Amino acid sequence: MAAALIGLANPAAAQVRSFALDGPARAYDGDHGFEPGMPGVFSVKTPPGNYRVTVTLGLPKRATDTTVKVEARRLMLDGVKVPAGKRIERSFIVNVRDAAIVPPAANAPGATMVDLKPREKASFTWDDRLTLEFVGPQPGVTAVRIEPVQVPTLFLLGDSTVTDQSFEPAASWGQMLTAFLTPDIAVANHAESGEAMKSFVMEKRLAKVLESVKPGDTAMIQFGHNDQKANWPQTFAASDTTYRSWLRVFVDEFRRRGVSVILVTSPERRNWTDDGRIRPTLGDYAAAVKAVGVEQRVPVIKLNDASIRIYEALGKDRALLAFNDGGKDATHHNNYGAWVLARAVAQGMTDAKLPIAAHLQPGLAPFDPAHPPAPESFVLAASARTSGVRPDGN
């Protein structure tokens, strides 16, 4: 992929920035360019907000096959093929944020920044730019246009099974869900590895989300993996008492801001019984989510149930192919596992007849967790950034 970058629009006047990428590569210079040492990773300095990104795909002399990810490997376009000599445009919405929080009033308690973990401080998630990654067998992007937009936003709150994992081979369903949505809604994934509901509050992550939402937005909430750990006394929340109370607090905070709430039960860990069934480790927490959903009249996507059906359908040996670290990690997923769980979440939106289902890509075939696609035939272009470190909360 060639890469000359030319600012064609006046961003101060038009609030639209366009770049040609069909000449010599230019390194990121504090305004725009390719990230040094990261082939195919292109950034533009951008203030927080939602942006419509339009990419022009196709090259004059060869066919192209391009996958586009944004920020921390959030999947936007998957394997778009263009014949030689043809060009097409594709658009999607990217949410950009930073860690700043509006300062509290004089003498009021509060904070001015989210308490980021060391790994987050080096992430494209929390910086001052919009970052695009072009990968695939034959990527071919010749132009990029970025413009601010006002669209509804889906906020994701959760743990390592939801967050945008920055490095291959780990992946989570939250960073795959975007591929199933239409280009008229943004996804702001505030989930983070190792988080429980209490720590999400203590680290000011909830405060950041609450100041960012607007009426008409949606909050999708999935916790449980870390809340259940009694050996983490500062964040432990018992499933029959405090965990339910925290769920009610989150629901109430969003409702009073005019934000719709969807609860999601946590995907199960891959632990087997002697008779080849998944041994539940999160059942009490899934039951608590369902109970609060009924009590508060909040829709619940039953991802815990779907994940068990997926793993058992694959079987003990093939289920390894859905997990991080070659299957040695029984909690976190790889690209295939994350994609399948995201597809189950999208199907949950449809099954529950949720308003947000109107933003799903048209023509999605019905998904049955008991019949997942074969992992051996799954293909998703990998990112260049890799790490052998498992996500927090394992």
UniProtKB/TrEMBL annotation:
Domain SGNH hydrolase-type esterase stretches: 156-337
InterPro entries per UniProt: Galactose-bd-like_sf, RhgT-like, SGNH_hydro, SGNH_hydro_sf
Keyword field: Hydrolase
Family membership: Belongs to the 'GDSL' lipolytic enzyme family.
Protein name, entry field: Rhamnogalacturonan acetylesterase
Organism: Sphingomonas floccifaciens
